[in-house]
Amino acid sequence: MSYEAVAAARMETIPAHVPAELVVDFNYFDPPGVRDDPHQAWKTLHDGPDVVYSPYNGGHWILTRADDMFAVMHDTDTFSSQEFTVPKRGPGPQLIPNQIDPPRHGALKSIVLRPLSPKSVRPIEPVIRELMAARIRRLAPLGRCEFVSEFTDVPPELFFEYAGLPKALIGKAKGLVDVIVHTQDDEVRRAARAESARMLSDLLDMWRAKPPSDDLFGVIIAQERAGVLTPEESVYYAMNVYHGGLETVSSALSFFAWFLARSPEHRRQLVEDPSLSTVAAEELLRRHGILNLARLTTRRTEFKDVTFEAGDLVMLPLHLGGLDDRKVSDPMTVDFKREGAPHPMFGTGIHRCVGSHLARPELRIFLEEWMKHIPDFGLDPDDKPIGASGIAMSMVHLPLVWPAPAGQA
Amino acid sequence: MKVTVDHARCVGHGLCQLRAPRVYELDDEGYNRMLPFEAPDGLEAEARLGAINCPEVAIRIEEQNVEEKLR
Predict the structure, then answer these.
(1) What per-residue confidence (pLDDT) applies to A409?
(2) pTM score, two decimals?
(3) How many domains does chain B have?
(4) What is the ipTM of this complex?
């Protein structure tokens, strides 16, 4: 079929309540220009209306502005989390607590709040630092690395360490999550989810055989023993927290490294004042958000002169919320001196990312340790970086080079 | 300077404490459950920084006099 024929076939599937002028030719897994710069590829949507409709992936609305995303994430009656990614998952086991709405959500989420609170995470900062530094020290003498394959497995390793999971499974686990967030083939995604569920079910058996513990899987099993969660719900709870821990921080780090490789000025600021790292991590995250989430409309509702019907999927590209010039001046510029630039990268409202207190120190410590050991680095002039979009945005290929110490290259 | 935290709005981002660790405290679950308080002397700017970085706009700051606003 010609491109026009494909486009025409898609248009036929557009529901009648969608105004033609709001339809965009935008497949979120593969927007034009995504390989060169995923965020720039999305940023083009800010040239159009605040609410648009993509006919791809089953058809869904896209909100482009931070305030609208905020409003939808807070209106849990009208916008359910039962579906929270595009395309729809459909019937089947729900991830807990991500796919659970009030009133059940609160009690379920509170199960993992303690093991993932700032207080619980603080004591493991030295472990985060040691794991990050060990890898960076190993790479430093080489003078080059392909960042995605040679560094981004560190956050999953940290998560496995934190959760007490067997490290032999990291490769398999990360492979499955990569498929889940990036594939456009829904059958493949379903198969990867099922395989993930089997793996987690086996892992949880280890905790079921152990005395009670207050670690991440321990608190889930405690609720299973108390009858709050069924054994299947435990699996989908564990899957929820562990998927969050595997993909997102790695993706963020790939963008941090890509940006810093191109900006000697920002590298200089971080080298001269490592205490900038906390705000630098926030600002780099605002500029390079990761997630494309969604909500399911539960009842017909008017939203900014547009009608959403019950069953409509509404996408919230959180990263685009961080690049909204109505919230942040000069949003494409990274400025470590911004006084305040609150961003929705971890979501807002009741589904705020529960792993954010583990993610933030990882991002900060990465900046501190990388800049300490590899202060000067750039892109490999002979090998182009490649970006990708999907449920999570990331760099998928990132060759870096730096001056290696004499005699070691 | 009076600082008031809206407990119903706080969902535990922890950004107030991240930006202003000498002013804000979080409970064991990561929520800010502080009762209304006076910002400690000299930490007014830090208190404000924590407030403007709250994604839920859950922290209200009331400047009590002109001198404070200029500080």
Answers:
(1) 44
(2) 0.93
(3) 1
(4) 0.89
